[in-house]
Each structure stands twice: as C-alpha cells, then as structure tokens.
Amino acid sequence: MLTIGDISEKVPVVSLTTKSAEVNLLFEVNPDLEGILVVEDDKPAGLVMKSQFYRKISTKYGFDLFMGRPINLVMDTNPLIVEFFDPITLVSSKAMARSQKNLYDYVVVIQNERLHGIVSIKNLLIKLAEIQVNQAMYTNPLSGLPGNVLIEEKMLEYIQNGTKPFSLLYLDLDHFKEYNDTYGFKKGDLLIKEVSNLLSKYVLLNNLEDSFVGHIGGDDFVAILPNHNFEPTCQAIMHEFRNRIKEYYDDNDWKNKYVFTKDRNGNFGNIPLVTLSIAVVTNEHHTYKSIDEISKIASDVKKQCKLYDDSCYIHFENKDSNLIEQTNCSCT
C-alpha cells in the first residue's frame, strides 16, 4: 500500500532564529520553491509558504516590521503534519478539509516524530488520481468492490507484516446458480449487490482501519478484519442476510423453502433457497507464508459450510503444525 511518505520530498529548512530577509533570499534564488520548513531539533516547528510570506511583508509596514526579525513571527505554527505511513487517501481528505487560506500549503511528513519531508498538493492530487484510476481498473463493475488484483495485494500486505492480526472471511452464496437460472440474471445481480452492501455495512463502516472487502467474482467475496473478533461481524451479516433474502423470492417459493428447477446436472428437483456460507481463517495461532496457503484452507472450510442447510460460518484454526478444525460452526 502506497503511503504519504513514499511520495514525500525534501525542501530547504531554516531555524527559528533565521531572519525573514534570509528566507526572502531563498525564495529569490529558487523561483520554483513554494515553501520552506522551519525546524527545531529535527522536528517541524512551522511552515512558510511563499504566497503567504509575501502577503505579510507586502503590507504597509510589513517589510520594515518583519524583514530584520526572526521567521517565527511570519511562519504558520500549525501546518498539517502527518505520519510517514499514513495512507495517501487519508492525507488527501485531511488536506482538502483545511481552510481556503491553507488549502494549497505543503503537507508536512514526519517519521518517528522527526521531519522527513513535504508533499505538495499538486503531487498529492496527481498520485491520488493515479490510485483512483488503478482502483477503477481492478474494481468489479457489478459490485464496485476491489477485484482479484487488489484482493491479492491486501492479503500479501497482511502476510508480509507477519505480526498484524487478521481474520479473513471467504463468503459465497449456496444454490445461487439455480436461483439465477430461475429468477433471471437481473434479480441475481441485485442479490450480488445486496451481499456487497451487507459487507460494506458491517466491515467497511465499522471504523476499523485496514478493514477490507473484495469481490472475487460471481457470488464469491472476501472480507478482512484487522483483528480476531470476527464472530459479531459474521453473526450480523448472516442475521441481516436471512432477513433480506425473503425479498428475492415470490411468496410460494418462500413458503415452500425450495425452488423447483434444474440442478447443476440438468435434473429437475426441489432446490433449497439461497444461503450464505462464510469460511473464517485467522492468524491467531499460525503465521501464513503465502496467499495460496490461506486460499486453500479457506476453500476447504467453505466446502464444510456447504454441508449445512442454512447460512453459517465456520472458523478454521491452526494451533500447531497439524491443521485442526475448530468446532465453531454457527448457523442462522
């Protein structure tokens, strides 16, 4: 994941005792320079943007008042300061929330409480646009959720971190093909969107940083929680899914609890209503080394979910070198 520190750059720095006349000379010698940082003990103390500097000294008494005096009388003592590893999207939101007067000021980047550099608003917006274009390229057009490329990037991020807790939820709809064949692809698309909305509601809107939802394709989804407290989320998703699925059937099919249609083998029969399976894999007791390792386990657990007649989730736990299934199945 690209962070604000990855696009930061260096600019001239001065001390608190530097005279405004010296800052003026720096701007004159470097006409493309938009701003200068004021530092104290390698920490940002203030920001001097060229436009605001000249606005102050160009007042009636500004030149005589400030030119021979320290820059701390002119600098902005409260610039936007962000951490090196802050996401670019988060920094962009903070930058755009500033007052009109400071909207185009540098964003100051620190690392371990010390100055690292700055990011100009021009470069920030260019990089943000690149990110949005890339996301659009790899987003599922039906659900609007990240597709396989971005899913793999997120999973790899957690795997490479090693110590960061996560719960991966692998979800899919059981009997969805038969539903699609019976009710048509438009209703099927609406049901897919329903699931994506539920995941966004209970995963992305829970205010947990680094939560993630992706759409593998068809009726398969992935969600990642940055903790091991997956049960409330699974239960909430299943509960609301059970309440909403009724809207996708006519009264007769809902009453019967089945649909008379062809199965995957082309034989007519009573096909159960659509249910939701959630396979859960966490790194609470095991460090995973590859995406393939996690994917295989999640796929195997999902097959076990499908043995149940109702929506359910199963948590798979690895406590030692032998894979052990935790008896943790919850059905609606």
From TrEMBL:
Record InterPro entries: CBS_dom_sf, Diguanylate_Cyclase, GGDEF_dom, Nucleotide_cyclase, Rev_trsase/Diguanyl_cyclase
SMART domains, sorted: GGDEF
Signal peptide positions (record): none
Domain GGDEF: 164-318
Pfam families: GGDEF
Protein name: GGDEF domain-containing protein
Species of origin: Metabacillus bambusae
